Model the fold of this input.
Amino acid sequence: MNRVGRAFAVLAGAAILFMMAVTSIDVIGRFFFNAPLRGAFELTEITMALVIFTGLSLAALSREHITVNLLESRMPKWARRWQVVGGDVVCAAVVAVMGWRIFERGSALVQSRETTLVLGVMRGHIAWAMAALCAVAVLVFLYCAWRDGRTPPEATGDAHGGVL
Done:
């Protein structure tokens, strides 16, 4: 799974680099040549959506998502382990519903042939890509639940935070 995490990190990093390049070219073109980059806002908007949904899997896999530990210090290690597993299963369910709704919305957008204003990119295809990234995130959450459910309580220590 480390390779998958690294692939997501590279993908997200490349997308962020792309957004930086688009923004830089747009700003330079706008201020120095009075010629902004056509569709720069739409490119940034689409790329940002993909970065967010790619980051969802990356954060889950590396245990870098936000957690609130109110009762964890008072719980035995075996209970902490199952709390983490249960949290992953709940997150998988929530992201699955979210992905399903995004897919349904994408299908409606494809059916109506709705596109972005400047570049003419099919908005439904973007939603489908986001739904696919949600499906990957569901698999990652389930993998994390399986992995942490198999780990002995002594080996887990702090269940939050991790490295790729």
Summary: The chain has one domain: 2-63+74-156.
